[in-house]
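Lab manual, section 2.4: Encoding a predicted structure.

Procedure: take the sequence of the chain (304 residues), apply the prediction step described in section 2.3, and record the output as C-alpha cells. A sample record is shown.
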Amino acid sequence: MPMLETNIKKDVEPPISHTEIGGEETPLQLIIKRFMKHRLAVAGSILMLLIILMAIFAPVIAPKDPYQVYDEFSAPPSAEHWLGTDQVGRDLFTRLIYASRVSMAVGLGAVLIYTLIGTILGAVSGYFGGWVDIVLMRLTDVFMSFPGLMLILVVVSILGPSLFNIIWILGLLGWPAVARLVRGTVLSLKHVDYVKSGVVLGLSTPRILFQHILPNAIAPILVQATFGIAAAIIVEASLSFLGMGVQPPTASWGNMLTDAQSLTVLTDQPWLWVPPGVMIVIVVLAINFIGDGLRDALDPKTLK
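Recorded output:
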C-alpha cells in the first residue's frame, strides 16, 4: 500500500513550471507579452516609430527644400518630383515629410497638456469629494456642454491660427474626459487597504494621492491619452483644412488638403490630396491599433 500511495502521488503532482524555477513574471513583463500578441498593435507601433523618426530627421530625409518654388505648377509625379508639385510649385513629397512634424507636435503636445490638467483635477476631485468634487465636476460639465469643434473655432478665431495656439487650445479644452476618467478611478482606489493604511500612518495627502493612488490608475490614463493623440491629429487637420489651423507656407497635412476643395483637383489632380489624406488615415489607424493593444494588455482581469 505505501508503494501504491507513492505512485499515485507521483502521478498527481504537477510538473515544475518555468516560473517556479526562474521566478514569476513581473506585471510589466506580462503587459509586454500580451501587447506583443496583438499583431495590429505591434504593426501600429512600428509604423508610428517610423513616422516619428521621419518627423525628427525630416531635414535629412527630405530631398528638397519645402519652401522652394519650382517653375512646374501642379505637376504630376515624376522622377524629379516623386509626388508632383502643388499649385504654387513646391515639392509635395518634401512637404509631406515636413507636415508630419506638425501632426506629431500637435498630437503629443496637446495630449500632454490636457492629460496633465485632467489627471490633477480628476484626482483632486475624486479624493477629496464634497464641495470640491461638486465644483470641479460642474466645471467639467460646463466644458463638455459646448460643441468641441465650434468652441475651438471660436477660440482660434480670437487668438489667431498658429501651431503654438492650436496646441494650447486643444490642450486647455480637452481635459474634461480625462478628469472624469481619473475621478472614477480614484473613487474606487481611495477605499482600498493600502490607502487607508497610509492615512493611518499620517502620510501627507499629496504623497498618498500621487505616489500610491495615481500610479495604480495609470493604465486607463495611458489608453485615453493614446486615443487622444489620434483625435488631436484629426482636429488639427480639420482646422487647417478650414484655414483656421497651421498657416501656409508651413506644411500641414490639413492645409495640403485645402487644394482638394476644387472639383477639378479632386478629379484630375489626385496627387495634390491623396498623399496627405492617406497619411492622416494611416497615422490615425496606427494610433488606434496601439490604443486597442494597450487596453487589452493593461486589463487588470488578465494580469493574473
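Check your result against the sample. The first helix runs from residue 2 to 12.
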